[in-house]
Design brief:
globular; alpha/beta
Length: 225
């Protein structure tokens, strides 16, 4: 199926998708950037949806860009002051080489047909030593292990428009083979997050940082080599 047909099918998922984004993947990515990257940088959010991830950076004066295919999402992002280009991450990114200091791709790579091409494109648009943040579901999370013991399908292994699924080692290998250096491996949470329960969620999110191998969503921070 052609990428444009897939994009059209994804449109109807947007309203739900924007709500799902509000979770610890964002908070942990924000914390890493603000603690480790000095100065106001040029940042790209691939599949930026309504622009929620970039909002704190806009407030701090970063130069914020987005790549998005859904018209409603583009309108929402532009209202926030994000410079959004309409396009698909399944194809060549509509940006010049060596443009960005930071590229964020949250829950995107699992939707690609050719993840090596996607990572090469991310590498291309990053400046030397630029930061790439990838988040994606973890096939071997603790929750999925329990599900499989019960004979149930692991979460995200079979989901709308998911063409890839990763373990921590596979994702790390993909990044290093595409000229990235892993700087930190994090995860969103183990079993429960504050999105579901405020108090138990704090513990689940903290454990996701302590033993990320068992986390629900992997968060890989890597540098362009």
């Amino acid at each position: 199926m052609k990428s444009k047909q897939i994009i059209n099918q994804q449109n109807r998922y947007y309203a739900t998708y924007a709500k799902i984004l509000r979770n610890p993947r964002y908070r942990k990515s924000w914390d890493y950037i603000f603690k480790n990257i000095k100065g106001r940088k040029k940042i790209l959010d691939i599949g930026c949806a309504d622009g929620e991830f970039l909002t704190p950076f806009i407030e701090k004066g970063y130069d914020c860009y987005g790549l998005e295919a859904i018209d409603e999402a583009i309108r929402d992002s532009r209202k926030k002051g994000i410079k959004v280009k309409k396009g698909s991450f399944l194809e060549k990114f509509p940006f010049r080489d060596n443009t960005f200091d930071i590229v964020f791709a949250g829950e995107v790579i699992e939707h690609t047909f050719d993840d090596d091409y996607f990572l090469r494109e991310a590498n291309r648009v990053l400046k030397k030593n630029g930061l790439l943040i990838i988040t994606t579901p973890n096939l071997v999370s603790l929750g999925n292990r329990f599900l499989m013991l019960l004979g149930r399908l692991p979460r995200f292994a079979y989901a709308p428009f998911h063409y890839r699924i990763y373990t921590p080692e596979l994702l790390k290998d993909k990044l290093t083979s595409n000229k990235f250096i892993i700087k930190k491996f994090e995860s969103s949470y183990i079993l429960i997050s504050t999105y579901f329960n405020k108090y138990a969620g704090y513990f689940g999110e903290a454990m996701g940082s302590v033993i990320p191998f068992f986390g629900e969503h992997m968060i890989l921070f890597s540098k362009k080599s």
